[in-house]
Design brief:
It contains five helices and six strands, in the order E-H-E-H-E-H-E-E-H-H-E. With 156 residues, the protein is α/β, with parallel strands linked by helices. The radius of gyration is 16 Å and the shape is globular. The two termini are 30 Å apart.
């Protein structure tokens, strides 16, 4: 399957209807983005069961701002509306394939349980306030989960 252009209009419907989505935030003027583009395209052919979406950050500034994209390319991996990975930088082909394999192997019930535990078990007695940030702003554990795709909610 080829890549899909993601926009503010179709992002939620595409991401919400797929088991796994890889999103490449890019721009035409970005050299590393142009280097990563063919790698991303080849992966989309190799893994037809996943959706590979591209967000042109120049054309979709609001969508890029929603995800606080400050560096491009940024790759995001979303499974079941949970952001599992969101990092800037052009990955080599082998690293991208390893990331896809690891994301597929995750037990999403465990991930959701972990997120719920972090959210429920996170008291305000741990020495910090929540002025201007949410629980998702903290890096708890080794995965970057806890963020939700496009402000979506988790299914339990």
């Amino acid at each position: 399957m080829a890549t899909v252009e993601l926009t503010g209009e179709n992002f939620e419907s595409v991401v919400g209807s797929a088991d796994m989505v890889l999103v490449d935030f890019w721009a035409s003027w970005c050299g590393p983005c142009r280097m990563f583009g063919p790698i991303f395209e080849r992966a989309s052919e190799k893994y037809p069961d996943a959706v590979f979406g591209k967000v042109d950050t120049d054309a979709q500034t609001e969508l890029a701002q929603t995800f606080a994209i400050s560096s491009i390319p940024t790759l995001m991996v979303i499974r079941d509306n949970v952001v599992l990975y969101a990092q800037p930088g052009a990955l080599p082909e082998q690293a991208l394939e390893e990331l896809i394999t690891k994301a597929r192997e995750l037990d999403m019930d465990e991930v959701r349980a972990s997120i719920a535990k972090e959210t429920d078990g996170h008291s305000h007695e741990d020495g910090h306030s929540h002025d201007g940030h949410s629980h998702e702003d903290h890096a708890h554990g080794e995965h970057a989960h806890g963020e939700h795709a496009h402000g979506g909610t988790q299914a339990s």
